[in-house]
Automatic annotation (TrEMBL):
Protein name per Swiss-Prot or TrEMBL: Glutathione synthetase-like protein
GO molecular function: ATP binding
Superkingdom, natural source: Bacteria
Species: Kribbella soli
SUPFAM superfamilies reported for this sequence: Glutathione synthetase ATP-binding domain-like (SSF56059)
Length: 282
């Protein structure tokens, strides 16, 4: 019997992002029956599916409590989720970076702070260019950059919501050399891109004018990304490892295990690789 796979998406991308749609044909070619479902739609019977593949659930951090409750409902119904709900919960809060650091992974230096502690941490970095971002979030939401101690950054911090933040030094190599994204399916390397921000910006997302170039990673970058993924736990169905090279050393910025943009247009065979990875899991 053909196994039915729900591709979970957000209401804004009820038919998937256009770049993701080739995945539907690839899943069919792999012998699966894919159906796109909006994760917030209360009418969906998730138990009717053999598995749920998380894709463009790009609003989950806006609806974080609802998202974690939905994951709990899937667990209760016994519906397998790709990636697993344990991996998703762990990956949904960027404090996982500190865990990976303890496991020997080189990360961009990071501190976690909230409330009054945020001001104390920033004060301790006076004069340095820093970036402050929520530990739960995405697409540079509530992310600010500036010189610690400057009036401009103080004002920007005052405008932020009262949540937990990651405080990091600004890495100028992101502007000069770009940020790496390496894609893996069932632990196997698929493809990579380098993302560069628009002139004068530091955010590499396309919504802020960033540019993306398919690029073969040097062996040291690939090995570092593989080591970071291995340190994150059981092999995920899909993963995107983001990082930057500083002084010839790859520093991890994020491991994306929930709903990473997969850069499928930059690698024509990537959709087929992911479909094969999904078929091997269900």
């Amino acid at each position: 019997m053909t196994k039915r796979i729900a591709l979970a998406t957000s209401a804004d991308y009820a038919e998937l992002h256009p770049d993701e749609r080739p995945l539907l044909d690839a899943l069919r070619a792999a012998g699966l029956d894919p159906v796109v479902e909006v994760w917030t739609d209360p009418s969906v019977d998730w138990s009717a599916y053999d598995a749920v593949l998380l894709r463009t659930v790009w609003d989950y951090f806006w609806l974080y409590a609802e998202f974690t409750e939905w994951l709990a409902q899937l667990d209760k119904a016994g519906v397998p989720v790709l990636n697993s709900t344990d991996q998703v919960r762990w990956n949904s809060d960027k404090q996982y970076l500190l865990e990976l650091r303890e496991r020997g992974v080189a990360i961009v230096p990071s501190q976690v702070a909230a409330g009054a502690c945020l001001r104390e941490v920033v004060a301790g970095l006076a004069g340095q260019q820093i970036v402050v971002k929520p530990t739960v979030g995405g697409n540079a939401l509530h992310t600010v950059r500036g010189v610690a101690g400057s009036p401009e950054l103080e004002q920007a911090l005052s405008d932020l919501p009262d949540v937990v933040y990651l405080v990091q030094p600004f890495v100028p190599e992101i502007q000069s050399d770009g940020e790496w994204s390496l894609l893996f399916f069932n632990g196997e390397f698929s493809h990579a891109v380098v993302k560069r921000p628009a002139s004068g910006d530091y955010r590499v997302q396309e919504s802020y004018g960033g540019q993306t170039t398919p690029t073969d990673p040097p062996p040291a970058v690939l090995e570092s990304a593989q080591a970071a993924m291995a340190a994150s736990g059981p092999t995920p169905t899909y993963a995107r490892v983001d990082g930057v090279v500083v002084n010839d050393r790859f520093l991890l910025m994020e491991i994306e295990l929930i709903e990473p943009y997969l850069f499928l247009p930059q690698s024509p065979d990537a959709a087929g690789k992911l479909a094969a990875a999904v078929a091997a899991r269900v």
